Amino acid sequence: MSLLKQRPELDLVAWPGELASTPNFWTQVTSRTYLVSPSLNVHPLILAGPSLTAVSTMSVGYEHIDLKAVAQRGLKLGYTPDVLTDAVADLSVMLALMASRNASIAASVVQSGQWLSNPWAPFAFCGPQLSTTMSTPRRTVGFLGFGRIAQATLARLASFGITHCLYASNPSSPPNHARDAELAKRYKLQAVTKVGLDELARESDFVFVLAPGGQDTYHVVNENFLKQMKKTSILVNTSRGTLVDSDALAKALKEGWIWAAGLDVVEGEPNITTEHPLVKEPRCIILPHIGSATLETRNDMAMRTAQNLIAALLGGDMPAQVDLSGYL
Protein backbone atom coordinates (compact mmCIF):
# COMPACT_ATOMS: atom_id res chain seq x y z
CA MET A 1 0.00 0.00 0.00
CA SER A 2 2.85 2.38 0.82
CA LEU A 3 4.23 1.97 -2.72
CA LEU A 4 0.88 3.07 -4.15
CA LYS A 5 0.62 5.99 -1.73
CA GLN A 6 4.00 7.25 -2.93
CA ARG A 7 2.59 7.87 -6.42
CA PRO A 8 0.94 11.33 -6.38
CA GLU A 9 -0.58 10.73 -9.81
CA LEU A 10 -2.71 7.89 -8.41
CA ASP A 11 -6.05 8.18 -6.65
CA LEU A 12 -6.02 5.37 -4.13
CA VAL A 13 -9.25 4.10 -2.58
CA ALA A 14 -9.22 1.15 -0.17
CA TRP A 15 -12.30 -0.88 0.69
CA PRO A 16 -12.61 -3.25 3.67
CA GLY A 17 -12.31 -6.84 2.47
CA GLU A 18 -15.89 -7.81 3.27
CA LEU A 19 -17.26 -5.05 1.03
CA ALA A 20 -15.37 -6.29 -2.02
CA SER A 21 -17.86 -9.11 -2.58
CA THR A 22 -20.97 -6.93 -2.64
CA PRO A 23 -22.68 -5.62 -5.80
CA ASN A 24 -22.54 -2.07 -4.42
CA PHE A 25 -18.76 -2.33 -4.26
CA TRP A 26 -18.44 -3.23 -7.91
CA THR A 27 -20.71 -0.40 -9.11
CA GLN A 28 -18.14 1.96 -7.55
CA VAL A 29 -15.13 0.40 -9.28
CA THR A 30 -14.74 3.02 -11.99
CA SER A 31 -11.00 3.47 -11.64
CA ARG A 32 -8.56 1.98 -14.12
CA THR A 33 -7.16 -0.80 -11.93
CA TYR A 34 -8.23 -3.05 -9.10
CA LEU A 35 -6.39 -5.22 -6.58
CA VAL A 36 -8.32 -8.42 -5.94
CA SER A 37 -8.28 -11.17 -3.35
CA PRO A 38 -11.90 -12.46 -3.31
CA SER A 39 -13.51 -14.42 -6.13
CA LEU A 40 -13.70 -12.47 -9.38
CA ASN A 41 -16.13 -13.70 -12.01
CA VAL A 42 -18.16 -12.29 -14.87
CA HIS A 43 -20.88 -10.73 -12.71
CA PRO A 44 -18.74 -8.12 -10.90
CA LEU A 45 -16.94 -7.35 -14.17
CA ILE A 46 -20.30 -6.41 -15.70
CA LEU A 47 -21.05 -4.18 -12.71
CA ALA A 48 -17.62 -2.54 -12.78
CA GLY A 49 -17.14 0.73 -14.62
CA PRO A 50 -16.01 0.72 -18.27
CA SER A 51 -12.72 2.43 -17.39
CA LEU A 52 -11.51 -0.68 -15.55
CA THR A 53 -8.42 -1.86 -17.47
CA ALA A 54 -6.45 -4.12 -15.15
CA VAL A 55 -6.76 -6.48 -12.21
CA SER A 56 -3.93 -7.61 -9.91
CA THR A 57 -4.31 -10.50 -7.48
CA MET A 58 -2.07 -10.94 -4.45
CA SER A 59 -1.60 -14.65 -5.08
CA VAL A 60 0.35 -17.01 -7.29
CA GLY A 61 -2.82 -18.90 -8.21
CA TYR A 62 -5.71 -17.39 -10.12
CA GLU A 63 -8.32 -20.14 -10.02
CA HIS A 64 -10.56 -17.67 -8.15
CA ILE A 65 -10.70 -15.45 -11.24
CA ASP A 66 -12.85 -16.04 -14.32
CA LEU A 67 -10.04 -15.83 -16.86
CA LYS A 68 -12.38 -15.92 -19.85
CA ALA A 69 -14.40 -12.99 -18.50
CA VAL A 70 -11.23 -10.99 -17.79
CA ALA A 71 -9.82 -11.74 -21.24
CA GLN A 72 -13.06 -10.83 -23.02
CA ARG A 73 -13.08 -7.47 -21.23
CA GLY A 74 -9.57 -6.90 -22.55
CA LEU A 75 -8.17 -6.50 -19.04
CA LYS A 76 -4.60 -7.10 -17.92
CA LEU A 77 -4.25 -9.58 -15.06
CA GLY A 78 -1.28 -9.52 -12.69
CA TYR A 79 -0.27 -12.13 -10.12
CA THR A 80 2.66 -12.88 -7.78
CA PRO A 81 4.73 -15.90 -8.85
CA ASP A 82 8.23 -16.77 -7.63
CA VAL A 83 8.16 -14.72 -4.41
CA LEU A 84 6.55 -17.45 -2.29
CA THR A 85 8.74 -20.37 -3.38
CA ASP A 86 10.82 -20.54 -0.21
CA ALA A 87 7.92 -20.04 2.19
CA VAL A 88 5.91 -22.88 0.62
CA ALA A 89 8.98 -25.14 0.53
CA ASP A 90 9.54 -24.49 4.25
CA LEU A 91 5.93 -25.36 5.03
CA SER A 92 6.08 -28.51 2.92
CA VAL A 93 8.92 -29.87 5.03
CA MET A 94 7.17 -28.76 8.21
CA LEU A 95 4.01 -30.68 7.25
CA ALA A 96 6.04 -33.76 6.38
CA LEU A 97 7.58 -33.72 9.84
CA MET A 98 4.33 -32.95 11.64
CA ALA A 99 2.41 -35.70 9.83
CA SER A 100 5.09 -38.36 10.16
CA ARG A 101 5.75 -37.66 13.84
CA ASN A 102 2.06 -37.48 14.81
CA ALA A 103 2.54 -33.91 15.99
CA SER A 104 -1.15 -33.03 15.90
CA ILE A 105 -2.14 -36.05 18.00
CA ALA A 106 0.70 -35.50 20.46
CA ALA A 107 0.01 -31.78 20.87
CA SER A 108 -3.69 -32.41 21.47
CA VAL A 109 -2.79 -34.68 24.42
CA VAL A 110 -1.03 -31.78 26.12
CA GLN A 111 -3.62 -29.17 25.15
CA SER A 112 -6.47 -31.31 26.45
CA GLY A 113 -4.73 -31.96 29.77
CA GLN A 114 -4.30 -35.68 29.06
CA TRP A 115 -0.50 -35.93 29.31
CA LEU A 116 -0.67 -37.53 32.76
CA SER A 117 -2.91 -40.30 31.45
CA ASN A 118 -0.60 -40.91 28.48
CA PRO A 119 2.70 -41.88 30.15
CA TRP A 120 5.80 -42.83 28.23
CA ALA A 121 5.64 -46.13 26.38
CA PRO A 122 8.17 -47.68 23.98
CA PHE A 123 6.16 -46.89 20.84
CA ALA A 124 3.77 -44.17 22.01
CA PHE A 125 3.24 -41.43 19.38
CA CYS A 126 5.81 -43.07 17.10
CA GLY A 127 5.78 -42.57 13.36
CA PRO A 128 8.09 -43.03 10.37
CA GLN A 129 11.27 -40.95 10.43
CA LEU A 130 12.02 -38.50 7.63
CA SER A 131 15.78 -38.77 7.94
CA THR A 132 17.84 -41.86 7.19
CA THR A 133 19.04 -44.07 10.03
CA MET A 134 21.50 -46.92 10.45
CA SER A 135 18.66 -49.43 10.13
CA THR A 136 16.96 -47.61 7.24
CA PRO A 137 19.76 -46.09 5.14
CA ARG A 138 17.53 -45.41 2.12
CA ARG A 139 14.94 -42.64 1.91
CA THR A 140 13.00 -41.85 -1.26
CA VAL A 141 11.03 -38.65 -1.68
CA GLY A 142 8.58 -38.28 -4.52
CA PHE A 143 7.30 -35.11 -6.12
CA LEU A 144 4.12 -34.79 -8.10
CA GLY A 145 5.23 -31.79 -10.11
CA PHE A 146 8.86 -30.73 -10.19
CA GLY A 147 8.95 -26.97 -10.61
CA ARG A 148 10.59 -24.27 -8.51
CA ILE A 149 8.81 -25.09 -5.24
CA ALA A 150 9.43 -28.83 -5.55
CA GLN A 151 13.13 -28.28 -6.21
CA ALA A 152 13.36 -25.82 -3.31
CA THR A 153 11.72 -28.46 -1.11
CA LEU A 154 14.24 -31.05 -2.28
CA ALA A 155 17.07 -28.68 -1.34
CA ARG A 156 15.75 -28.58 2.22
CA LEU A 157 15.22 -32.34 2.40
CA ALA A 158 18.80 -33.07 1.35
CA SER A 159 20.02 -32.35 4.88
CA PHE A 160 17.87 -35.23 6.17
CA GLY A 161 20.02 -37.71 4.29
CA ILE A 162 17.55 -38.35 1.48
CA THR A 163 19.07 -40.84 -0.96
CA HIS A 164 16.67 -40.93 -3.91
CA CYS A 165 14.34 -38.42 -5.54
CA LEU A 166 11.54 -39.42 -7.89
CA TYR A 167 9.25 -37.03 -9.69
CA ALA A 168 6.28 -37.18 -12.05
CA SER A 169 5.48 -34.20 -14.23
CA ASN A 170 3.81 -33.39 -17.53
CA PRO A 171 3.94 -36.63 -19.56
CA SER A 172 4.60 -34.64 -22.75
CA SER A 173 7.79 -33.15 -21.29
CA PRO A 174 10.88 -35.34 -21.77
CA PRO A 175 13.16 -35.98 -18.78
CA ASN A 176 15.89 -33.40 -18.26
CA HIS A 177 18.76 -35.79 -17.62
CA ALA A 178 21.43 -33.09 -17.38
CA ARG A 179 19.49 -31.10 -14.78
CA ASP A 180 18.60 -34.23 -12.83
CA ALA A 181 22.23 -35.32 -12.71
CA GLU A 182 23.28 -31.86 -11.56
CA LEU A 183 20.66 -31.90 -8.77
CA ALA A 184 21.78 -35.35 -7.65
CA LYS A 185 25.38 -34.18 -7.51
CA ARG A 186 24.53 -30.93 -5.73
CA TYR A 187 22.49 -32.61 -3.00
CA LYS A 188 24.58 -35.80 -2.79
CA LEU A 189 21.71 -38.05 -3.88
CA GLN A 190 22.11 -41.43 -5.50
CA ALA A 191 19.60 -40.51 -8.21
CA VAL A 192 17.00 -37.99 -9.36
CA THR A 193 14.62 -39.74 -11.74
CA LYS A 194 11.45 -38.94 -13.66
CA VAL A 195 8.92 -41.77 -13.33
CA GLY A 196 5.26 -42.47 -13.93
CA LEU A 197 2.56 -41.94 -11.31
CA ASP A 198 2.36 -45.63 -10.37
CA GLU A 199 6.07 -45.91 -9.64
CA LEU A 200 6.02 -42.62 -7.78
CA ALA A 201 3.28 -43.95 -5.50
CA ARG A 202 4.90 -47.36 -4.97
CA GLU A 203 8.47 -46.28 -4.26
CA SER A 204 8.19 -43.00 -2.33
CA ASP A 205 8.41 -42.78 1.44
CA PHE A 206 7.14 -39.19 1.30
CA VAL A 207 5.04 -37.83 -1.58
CA PHE A 208 4.88 -34.06 -2.05
CA VAL A 209 2.05 -32.77 -4.24
CA LEU A 210 3.36 -29.60 -5.89
CA ALA A 211 1.77 -29.50 -9.34
CA PRO A 212 -0.48 -26.79 -10.82
CA GLY A 213 -4.24 -27.03 -10.49
CA GLY A 214 -6.66 -27.42 -13.38
CA GLN A 215 -8.48 -30.14 -15.27
CA ASP A 216 -5.30 -32.01 -16.22
CA THR A 217 -4.41 -32.62 -12.57
CA TYR A 218 -7.89 -32.89 -11.04
CA HIS A 219 -7.90 -35.73 -8.47
CA VAL A 220 -4.59 -37.05 -9.78
CA VAL A 221 -4.11 -38.41 -6.27
CA ASN A 222 -7.06 -40.77 -6.25
CA GLU A 223 -7.94 -44.14 -4.75
CA ASN A 224 -5.76 -46.01 -7.24
CA PHE A 225 -2.73 -43.83 -6.45
CA LEU A 226 -3.21 -44.07 -2.69
CA LYS A 227 -3.65 -47.86 -2.70
CA GLN A 228 -0.20 -48.21 -4.28
CA MET A 229 1.56 -46.13 -1.62
CA LYS A 230 3.49 -47.72 1.24
CA LYS A 231 1.64 -48.23 4.51
CA THR A 232 4.32 -46.10 6.22
CA SER A 233 4.26 -43.35 3.60
CA ILE A 234 3.29 -39.71 4.09
CA LEU A 235 1.33 -37.54 1.66
CA VAL A 236 1.88 -33.76 1.72
CA ASN A 237 -0.15 -31.32 -0.38
CA THR A 238 0.81 -27.64 -0.45
CA SER A 239 -0.30 -26.86 -4.00
CA ARG A 240 -4.02 -27.05 -4.81
CA GLY A 241 -6.76 -28.97 -3.03
CA THR A 242 -8.28 -30.21 -6.27
CA LEU A 243 -5.29 -32.46 -6.96
CA VAL A 244 -6.28 -34.81 -4.12
CA ASP A 245 -9.57 -36.69 -3.90
CA SER A 246 -10.53 -35.93 -0.29
CA ASP A 247 -12.90 -38.88 0.06
CA ALA A 248 -10.26 -41.29 -1.25
CA LEU A 249 -7.63 -39.84 1.11
CA ALA A 250 -9.97 -40.10 4.11
CA LYS A 251 -10.60 -43.75 3.21
CA ALA A 252 -6.86 -44.37 2.82
CA LEU A 253 -6.18 -42.97 6.27
CA LYS A 254 -9.07 -44.75 7.91
CA GLU A 255 -8.14 -48.13 6.40
CA GLY A 256 -4.40 -47.73 6.86
CA TRP A 257 -3.28 -47.63 3.23
CA ILE A 258 -0.86 -44.82 4.17
CA TRP A 259 0.49 -43.56 7.47
CA ALA A 260 -0.56 -39.92 7.52
CA ALA A 261 -1.16 -36.75 5.51
CA GLY A 262 -0.21 -33.11 5.91
CA LEU A 263 -2.37 -30.65 3.99
CA ASP A 264 -2.23 -26.90 3.54
CA VAL A 265 -4.97 -27.05 0.91
CA VAL A 266 -8.23 -28.96 0.67
CA GLU A 267 -10.74 -29.10 -2.15
CA GLY A 268 -13.69 -26.84 -1.32
CA GLU A 269 -11.75 -24.61 1.08
CA PRO A 270 -12.51 -22.58 3.09
CA ASN A 271 -15.81 -24.39 3.56
CA ILE A 272 -14.18 -27.12 5.63
CA THR A 273 -16.11 -27.92 8.82
CA THR A 274 -15.53 -30.34 11.67
CA GLU A 275 -17.77 -32.77 9.78
CA HIS A 276 -15.37 -32.98 6.84
CA PRO A 277 -14.06 -36.56 6.50
CA LEU A 278 -10.42 -35.42 6.55
CA VAL A 279 -10.89 -33.28 9.66
CA LYS A 280 -12.20 -36.38 11.41
CA GLU A 281 -9.01 -38.33 10.66
CA PRO A 282 -6.51 -37.98 13.54
CA ARG A 283 -3.53 -38.67 11.27
CA CYS A 284 -4.44 -35.88 8.87
CA ILE A 285 -3.12 -32.47 9.84
CA ILE A 286 -4.78 -29.60 7.98
CA LEU A 287 -3.65 -25.99 7.90
CA PRO A 288 -5.85 -23.17 6.52
CA HIS A 289 -3.82 -22.48 3.35
CA ILE A 290 -0.95 -20.59 4.98
CA GLY A 291 1.84 -21.60 2.60
CA SER A 292 2.85 -17.99 1.91
CA ALA A 293 2.02 -16.70 5.40
CA THR A 294 5.33 -15.24 6.50
CA LEU A 295 5.83 -11.53 7.08
CA GLU A 296 8.61 -11.42 4.52
CA THR A 297 6.76 -13.29 1.79
CA ARG A 298 3.46 -11.45 2.19
CA ASN A 299 5.33 -8.12 2.05
CA ASP A 300 7.04 -9.24 -1.16
CA MET A 301 3.70 -10.37 -2.60
CA ALA A 302 2.10 -7.04 -1.75
CA MET A 303 5.01 -5.22 -3.37
CA ARG A 304 4.69 -7.25 -6.58
CA THR A 305 0.93 -6.67 -6.62
CA ALA A 306 1.43 -2.92 -6.35
CA GLN A 307 4.13 -2.97 -9.02
CA ASN A 308 1.74 -4.75 -11.34
CA LEU A 309 -0.92 -2.12 -10.75
CA ILE A 310 1.43 0.81 -11.29
CA ALA A 311 2.80 -0.67 -14.52
CA ALA A 312 -0.71 -1.15 -15.85
CA LEU A 313 -1.70 2.41 -14.95
CA LEU A 314 1.32 3.74 -16.81
CA GLY A 315 0.35 1.77 -19.91
CA GLY A 316 3.08 -0.86 -19.75
CA ASP A 317 3.23 -4.59 -19.20
CA MET A 318 2.95 -5.85 -15.65
CA PRO A 319 6.14 -7.38 -14.15
CA ALA A 320 4.11 -10.57 -13.59
CA GLN A 321 1.23 -10.75 -16.05
CA VAL A 322 -0.97 -13.75 -16.83
CA ASP A 323 -1.04 -14.76 -20.49
CA LEU A 324 -4.73 -14.64 -21.40
CA SER A 325 -4.31 -15.22 -25.14
CA GLY A 326 -5.78 -18.71 -24.87
CA TYR A 327 -9.04 -17.36 -23.43
CA LEU A 328 -9.95 -14.93 -26.22
Summarize the structure.
The protein has 328 residues and is α/β, with parallel strands linked by helices. The chain has helices at residues 2-5, 23-27, 42-47, 67-72, 85-100, 103-111, 148-157, 177-186, 197-203, 223-228, 246-255, 295-313, and strands at residues 33-36, 54-57, 76-78, 140-144, 164-168, 191-194, 206-209, 234-237, 260-263, 284-286.
Describe the structure.
- The protein starts with a helix and ends in a 15-residue tail after the last helix.
- It is built from twelve helices and ten strands.
- The protein is of the alpha/beta class and 328 residues long.
- The strands form two sheets. The protein has a seven-stranded parallel beta sheet with strand order 6-5-4-7-8-9-10.
- Mean pLDDT is 88; it is low at 18-31.
- It has helices spanning 2-5, 23-27, 42-47, 67-72, 85-100, 103-111, 148-157, 177-186, 197-203, 223-228, 246-255, 295-313; strands at 33-36, 54-57, 76-78, 140-144, 164-168, 191-194, 206-209, 234-237, 260-263, 284-286.
How do the strands of the widest beta sheet line up side by side?
6-5-4-7-8-9-10
Which segments are poorly predicted (pLDDT under 50) over 5 or more consecutive residues? Answer: 18-31
Mean model confidence by pLDDT: 88
In terms of structural class, how would the helical and strand content be classed? alpha/beta
Which band does the percent of strand residues land in? 5-15%
Number of strands: 10
Helix-strand pattern, N to C? HHEHEHEHHEHEHEHEHEHEEH
Counting DSSP H or I runs of 4 or more residues, the number of helices is: 12
The largest sheet is: 7 strands, parallel
User: Looking at the chains present, what oligomeric state does this protein adopt?
Assistant: single chain
Span between termini: 32 Å
Please state the overall shape, judged from the principal axes of the Cα atoms.
globular
Helix content: 25-40%
Q: Kindly provide the radius of gyration, computed on alpha-carbon positions and rounded to a whole number of angstroms.
A: 22 Å
